[in-house]
Amino acid sequence: MSGRWVRPVSGHSPTGALSLSDCRVEGREAQLLDIVRFDYEEELGDPAQPENVLIDHSPWKLTGVLASGEAYGFLGPHLTQGPALLGGTEKGIDEDVAQQGVPASLTLAEPDEISFRSQDDPFRAGRRQARAIFKLGSAGYNLGISDLVIAPIIKGAGDGDYSAVDLDLPDLAHTILTISLTEPLNEVRWKLAAAVQFLP
Description:
With 200 residues, the protein is mainly beta. 9% of the residues lie in helices and 39% in strands.
């Protein structure tokens, strides 16, 4: 075990996105706090997403599940201290800069305060966006959310800003965001909340 971050990606998708069947374990989709083992063909050496590894599409194996009460103690040492996220406080990194190489395209953050926004998607007509509005130290952030469980709840709430309580989401001591750099959109690698976890 190296203890380093990896992002599994698929060779069957132009963007590398995994299908739901790629990440199934024991007949279900892998979930947050699952501990899984998967095989990969190679490290891709992507300068803009240095964690990327190409999966070999063999079945994933569930080796354990981290108890929610233990998760913060496990994840806490990996939290970014801010106020910068992935190298700066901007919403994204220009693609030409990212292609020169970034130290990381994945990190964890625990906002000092957070709300959730539902709004029209400015890039795709007729679609909605879920966003995380939060502070990390002295910096304010407004990032899209792609979490497959949380994002639909936020989008379905209608235009506006909401607390976790407003959305009937868990109101626990710690809200942990997995922040990722996206594939390029309009020549920018945007910072995105790829997962939202509520932990005691």
